Amino acid sequence: MHAPIKTTGLLFVSLLLAGCGVGVARKSGAASTSTVTNTANFAVSAFSPASGDVNRLPTSVVVVFNQANIASNVSTPSYYNLSCSGNVFQASSVQYTAGQNFVTVQLPSVGAVNAGTICYFSISPNIANTDGYTTVGSRSAAYNLINGQSLAGNPISAAVGGTGGVGFTENGATLELLSGLNLNTSTSVLAIQGLWQENFRSGGTIVGGAVHGDQTVSPNQNFNCPAGMRITGLKGRAGSYVLAIGIVCKDSSQATYWESSIAGAAGGGNFSISCPAGTFATGLAGRSGSYLDQIALVCQ
Question: Which of 30, 107, 117, 201 is the most exposed place for a label (fewest CB within 10 A)?
Answer without folding.
Answer: 30
